[in-house]
Design brief:
heterodimer; A: mainly beta; four-stranded antiparallel β-sheet; 11 strands; 49% strand; globular; B: mainly beta; six-stranded mixed β-sheet; five-stranded antiparallel β-sheet
Chain lengths: 114, 113
């Protein structure tokens, strides 16, 4: 039973380019969360999605960032016109539901903006 | 929004010593979860506490949920080098009926062998 799959593991972008981060949840999981982590810091909530719905995007910057979880295919976190401050590890997690379900995390995508 | 405060931020111990991290909230929590993240790795779910005053054990790890359900602790007895990592508590916070999981700042444990 495959876990949460994130790709790419490492992504290098120049300032101004777009970054697309992909996340395939665990089989049977319909809830996806994206978190951002700076080196030696905590996990900052960005967005919570269900299939075809954004449930809570209160942690996501209003500009340049967007997320989707289509009916078919992985969840995508898109960062347009990246800046150096976007460099971080981005973790995706999935769960079976919003209640007491634990989160299962992917290995993360390390984004470096040069 | 609801926040969970976690202390200490860092803890360095000698191998064999005990370790404790604390998590506090200003509001009553419905439940609390604990995760461990090894250096360079991803967070891994350890346990969930739901009931007031609940105590759960996993080998050398003891998890407690306060009577008022506003605080929690993780205690490791006789640390080993495999315990190195950052320990996070996490709690659900409601937003328009949905529930996102908010993490504490984490306690980074380093161990001197």
């Amino acid at each position: 039973n495959a876990g949460v799959m994130q790709n790419p593991r490492h992504l290098v972008r120049r300032r101004g380019q777009e970054a697309r981060l992909r996340c395939s949840p665990m089989k049977g999981h319909s809830h996806v969360y994206w978190y951002r982590q700076l080196p030696e810091e905590g996990l900052k909530f960005m967005v919570y999605l269900q299939k075809e719905n954004i449930i809570d995007e209160s942690g996501m910057p209003k500009e340049r960032f967007s997320a989707e979880f289509p009916k078919e295919g992985p969840s995508i976190l898109r960062i347009q016109q990246v800046v150096r401050g976007d460099s971080a590890a981005y973790f995706c997690a999935s769960s079976t539901g919003p209640g007491n379900s634990p989160l299962h995390f992917g290995n993360g995508t390390r984004l470096t903006v040069t | 929004g609801q926040q969970v405060m976690q202390i200490p931020q860092y803890q360095h111990v000698q191998e064999g010593e005990d370790f404790t991290t604390y998590c506090n909230s200003s509001t009553t929590l419905s439940n609390i979860q604990w995760y461990k993240q090894r250096p360079g790795g991803h967070p891994v779910f350890l346990i969930q506490l739901v009931k007031s005053g609940e105590v759960k054990k996993q080998k050398r790890l003891t998890f407690q949920f306060g009577e008022a359900k506003k605080n929690s602790s993780l205690h490791i007895t006789a640390t080993q080098t495999t315990d190195v990592g950052t320990y996070f508590c996490a709690a659900r916070t409601s937003y328009q009926g949905a529930q996102k999981l908010v993490f504490g700042q984490g306690t980074r444990l380093t161990i001197n062998p």
